[in-house]
């Protein structure tokens, strides 16, 4: 929230703030520091291949899939609510999407918007129940975690006649004009050109080792930039901070808190739907375990990114870097000689450090002692 | 009582009241919270509403600010009968209320709090965005007019003192066109120095032609800044006195309902 504009009058009480002190006030500081630490760690321990272009694309792909969810989760957390059902929402939206394309044979131009509308409806149902009942969103969305996961299983069996996997998505959408926006690699022309000029690594045949940016990375970047713009530069962003900071004060000041919160639930569900569409098209099938435990990973990435559990504070850029750390660790460990199962220990440790750090920062910002 | 005249300058200008409330009654089921309250406030005056806990002050200001509808009685706004359906209606008409919780969010910057819910924008279409420069400049300027030089407009409200926060809330109300400013116990949780800052702020706001309704149970604070004093006891107004007509002791006794306090005060050596 640094609305750092030039200030005309010089105030004698305003000590010249060092660059470091200004940086300390940014919510995403912890996540950026984390990225640097993790990078140093892997530079020291991992195979150098990790930091080549193909290595980076390798770890940014899972980071992007998680990051899209994490940015949705971060916005919702800043708005003062949780959504534990996003992982299940990925499975449920994936089922809906696969059923629309395979079972019903709809073109992507109908199936994709329909999936988003469907997800938004489920999100608004979550939001509506939370707002109407006044119950903590934690418990309401925990219920939906199970309801949606169960519905995905039941629905898959209905759609396939007993299997928990629905195949044939790739064949169904292969030739659709919308497919390149949601699957495969972007900028493949550029990468081919770079390869031809010897600017990036190629195989012996002359084809580039990295054929392009996977589309999810592009979506991840777009969503991160868009979310940051909304948070920092639009009235809606101010309402999100206000709704999370103190809903009563916000309502008394004329902020439409209910609308803001329900919209945030819808956005979060749509982020889950986007991840579902991308991963289902990528895999060519969907199954009931899709998105399993992603809700926790997304919330962890948001918290590492500086979001407070109590709401009203955080950043989308932070969530971006939180998810990047996640991707670096989960993929990076395969480049080292460590047992990959250290990943979970690492994740828990990061979460704990981030929460302690955020708490200290919050006290600094509010001047609490 | 040295504070007596500290924040008072000149006589009340004679104007028609902005808001006039006549014989307001408010019943909640079988409980009569207000049993005939009359009150008015003129531009550029500070009218203090005094009363002990449970006297009906809160119910009365909530009626005035549109939260409650009166069971009986009339409200006139600038001479015309008026009925507010919501706090929003009252706010749009120009009645702003600063409640004790101030409607401030500690984690957000002063600027973001100042414009919360009423953000100015520039640009259009998808590029429509907050006019941050204007927001910051306006916030600094409005705060300066009330005598507070903010360190920076992007400092979090949580880092301000209680008195400064109160001033932000008042500046915000005045900036958004309040004709009547209702302050609910603005000094109750403040220290001596911050209290006098807030009282000075009230004086500045009054000089801008805003009618101030100052709710308090502290006679000294009321006398320091008030032009007129209305005492509320057990849901009724016990009358309105103009500045100079009434002594602090009389006000105190009226608030407490007379005799008992005088006796109690005697036993405490005049410290209440």
Automatic annotation (TrEMBL), chain A:
<dbReference type="Pfam" id="PF02653">
    <property type="entry name" value="BPD_transp_2"/>
</dbReference>
<keyword id="KW-0472">Membrane</keyword>
<dbReference type="InterPro" id="IPR001851">
    <property type="entry name" value="ABC_transp_permease"/>
</dbReference>
<feature type="transmembrane region" description="Helical">
    <location>
        <begin position="217"/>
        <end position="242"/>
    </location>
</feature>
<feature type="transmembrane region" description="Helical">
    <location>
        <begin position="138"/>
        <end position="157"/>
    </location>
</feature>
<keyword id="KW-0812">Transmembrane</keyword>
<feature type="transmembrane region" description="Helical">
    <location>
        <begin position="177"/>
        <end position="196"/>
    </location>
</feature>
<keyword id="KW-0997">Cell inner membrane</keyword>
<feature type="transmembrane region" description="Helical">
    <location>
        <begin position="59"/>
        <end position="79"/>
    </location>
</feature>
<feature type="transmembrane region" description="Helical">
    <location>
        <begin position="86"/>
        <end position="104"/>
    </location>
</feature>
<feature type="transmembrane region" description="Helical">
    <location>
        <begin position="29"/>
        <end position="53"/>
    </location>
</feature>
<feature type="transmembrane region" description="Helical">
    <location>
        <begin position="296"/>
        <end position="322"/>
    </location>
</feature>
<keyword id="KW-0762">Sugar transport</keyword>
<keyword id="KW-1133">Transmembrane helix</keyword>
<feature type="transmembrane region" description="Helical">
    <location>
        <begin position="262"/>
        <end position="284"/>
    </location>
</feature>
<keyword id="KW-0813">Transport</keyword>
<comment type="function">
    <text>Part of the binding-protein-dependent transport system for D-xylose. Probably responsible for the translocation of the substrate across the membrane.</text>
</comment>
<keyword id="KW-1003">Cell membrane</keyword>
<dbReference type="GO" id="GO:0005886">
    <property type="term" value="C:plasma membrane"/>
</dbReference>
<dbReference type="GO" id="GO:0022857">
    <property type="term" value="F:transmembrane transporter activity"/>
</dbReference>
<protein>
    <recommendedName>
        <fullName>Xylose transport system permease protein XylH</fullName>
    </recommendedName>
</protein>
<feature type="transmembrane region" description="Helical">
    <location>
        <begin position="342"/>
        <end position="361"/>
    </location>
</feature>
UniProtKB/TrEMBL annotation, chain B:
<dbReference type="InterPro" id="IPR003593">
    <property type="entry name" value="AAA+_ATPase"/>
</dbReference>
<protein>
    <submittedName>
        <fullName>ATP-binding cassette domain-containing protein</fullName>
    </submittedName>
</protein>
<dbReference type="GO" id="GO:0016887">
    <property type="term" value="F:ATP hydrolysis activity"/>
</dbReference>
<dbReference type="GO" id="GO:0005524">
    <property type="term" value="F:ATP binding"/>
</dbReference>
<dbReference type="InterPro" id="IPR003439">
    <property type="entry name" value="ABC_transporter-like_ATP-bd"/>
</dbReference>
<keyword id="KW-0547">Nucleotide-binding</keyword>
<keyword id="KW-0067">ATP-binding</keyword>
<feature type="domain" description="ABC transporter">
    <location>
        <begin position="19"/>
        <end position="259"/>
    </location>
</feature>
<dbReference type="InterPro" id="IPR050107">
    <property type="entry name" value="ABC_carbohydrate_import_ATPase"/>
</dbReference>
<dbReference type="InterPro" id="IPR027417">
    <property type="entry name" value="P-loop_NTPase"/>
</dbReference>
<dbReference type="Pfam" id="PF00005">
    <property type="entry name" value="ABC_tran"/>
</dbReference>
């Amino acid at each position: 929230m640094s609305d750092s504009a030039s200030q005309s009058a010089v105030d004698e009480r305003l000590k010249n703030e060092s660059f470091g002190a200004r940086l300390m006030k940014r919510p995403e500081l912890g996540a950026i520091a984390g990225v640097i630490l993790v990078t140093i760690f892997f530079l020291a321990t991992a195979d150098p291949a990790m930091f080549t272009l193909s290595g980076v694309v390798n770890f940014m792909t899972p980071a992007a899939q998680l990051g899209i969810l994490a940015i949705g989760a971060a916005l919702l957390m800043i708005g003062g609510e949780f959504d534990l059902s996003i992982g299940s929402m990925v499975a449920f939206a994936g089922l809906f999407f696969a059923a629309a394309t395979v079972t019903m044979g709809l073109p992507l131009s109908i199936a994709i918007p329909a999936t988003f509308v469907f997800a938004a409806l489920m999100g608004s149902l979550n939001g509506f129940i939370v707002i109407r009942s006044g119950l903590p969103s934690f418990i309401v969305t925990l219920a939906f975690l199970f309801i949606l996961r169960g519905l995905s299983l039941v629905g898959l069996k209905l759609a396939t006649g007993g299997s928990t996997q629905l195949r044939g998505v790739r064949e169904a959408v292969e030739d659709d004009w919308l497919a390149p926006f949601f699957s495969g690699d972007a900028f493949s022309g550029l990468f081919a050109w770079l390869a031809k000029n010897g600017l990036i690594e190629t195989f012996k045949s002359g084809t580039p080792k990295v054929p392009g940016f996977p589309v999810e990375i592009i979506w991840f970047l777009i969503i991160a930039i868009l979310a940051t713009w909304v948070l920092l530069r639009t009235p809606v962003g101010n309402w999100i901070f206000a709704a999370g900071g103190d809903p009563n004060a916000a309502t008394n000041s004329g902020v439409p808190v209910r609308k803001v919160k329900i919209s945030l639930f819808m956005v979060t569900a749509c982020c889950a739907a986007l991840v579902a569409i991308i991963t289902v098209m990528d895999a060519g099938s969907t199954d009931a375990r899709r998105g399993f435990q992603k809700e926790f990973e997304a919330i962890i990435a948001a918290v590492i990114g500086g979001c407070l559990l109590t709401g009203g504070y955080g950043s989308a850029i932070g969530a971006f870097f939180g998810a990047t750390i996640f991707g670096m660790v989960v993929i990076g460990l395969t480049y080292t000689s460590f047992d990959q199962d250290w990943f979970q220990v690492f994740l828990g440790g990061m979460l704990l450090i981030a929460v302690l750090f955020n708490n200290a920062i919050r006290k600094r910002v509010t001047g609490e002692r | 009582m040295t504070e007596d005249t500290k924040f008072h300058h000149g006589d009340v200008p004679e104007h028609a009241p902005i808001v006039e409330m006549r014989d307001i009654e408010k019943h909640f089921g079988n409980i009569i919270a207000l049993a005939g309250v009359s009150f008015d406030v003129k531009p550029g005056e500070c009218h203090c509403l005094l009363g002990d806990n449970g006297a009906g002050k809160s119910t009365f200001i909530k009626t005035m600010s549109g939260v409650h509808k009166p069971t009986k009685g009339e409200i006139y706004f600038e001479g015309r009968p008026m009925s507010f359906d919501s706090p929003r209606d009252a706010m749009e008409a120009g009645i702003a209320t600063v409640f004790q919780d101030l409607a401030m969010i500690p984690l957000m910057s002063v600027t973001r709090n100042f414009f919360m819910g009423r953000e100015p924008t520039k640009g259009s279409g998808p590029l429509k965005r907050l006019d941050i420069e204007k927001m910051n400049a306006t916030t600094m300027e409005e705060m300066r007019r009330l005598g507070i030089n903010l360190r920076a407009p992007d400092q979090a409200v949580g880092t301000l003192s209680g008195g400064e926060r109160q001033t932000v809330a008042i500046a915000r109300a005045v900036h958004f066109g309040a004709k009547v400013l209702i302050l609910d116990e603005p000094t109750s949780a403040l220290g001596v120095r911050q209290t006098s800052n807030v009282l000075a702020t009230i004086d500045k706001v009054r000089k801008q032609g805003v009618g101030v309704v100052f709710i308090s149970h502290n006679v000294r604070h009321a006398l320091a800044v008030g032009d007129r004093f209305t005492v509320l006891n057990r849901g009724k107004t016990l009358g309105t006195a103009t500045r100079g007509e009434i002594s602090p002791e009389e006000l105190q006794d009226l608030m407490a309902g007379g005799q008992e306090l005088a006796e109690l005060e005697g036993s405490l050596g005049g410290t209440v």
